[in-house]
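A quick aside before the break. I want you to see a complete sequence-to-structure record at least once, exactly as it would be stored in a machine-readable document. Don't worry about memorizing anything.
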Amino acid sequence: MATANDLRRGMAINYNGDVCVVLDSQHRTPGNLRAFVQATLRSIRSGRSSDVRFSSTERIDVVPMMTRKMEFSYKDGEDYVFSDPETYETVTLSPELIGDAKNYLVENGPVTVTFVEEKAVSVELPSSVVLTVADAPEGIRGDSANNVQKAITLETGITIQAPLFIKSGEKIKVDTRTGKYMERA
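That is the input. The structure line, written in tokens, reads:
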């Protein structure tokens, strides 16, 4: 059995009879007080997040997790449908679970889905994705004195800053962690 010091982001634990995913954890030692671990947990059943304080030596019950490589298939109303490329099994996930990842999902795009007790709890994108530029205004002649950027719209609807030479219809590589332009693809 693990202790609270072993808590890491992304782990699943059994807390108060409910399975929770650790969103964030910090080990703190304030002044002359005993050390403790401050964690943010999200309940799988209700979806609510809460801040919890554990004694650093407190025992926690870790729940096994399973990750699967999947591909984004399509959007069904508000929900997102993913399929396993080997078994063709599909999983439908809510927009709350997808979060900001929706800005980088393209058809057949690879993702890693984490399951706890056969229920999807998180979606992880690759570090970069290739997207098509939907709309890019023309650069103004003479605007190239410094590293000048312009706002472009990508196929998923997200707007990012890119260099002046990028045109509509081109494919570019975007960093999914920062949302910034990387290079032409």
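Two observations worth writing down. The two ends are 47 Å apart (CA to CA). The chain has three domains: 2-63, 65-124, 128-184. We'll return to this after the break.
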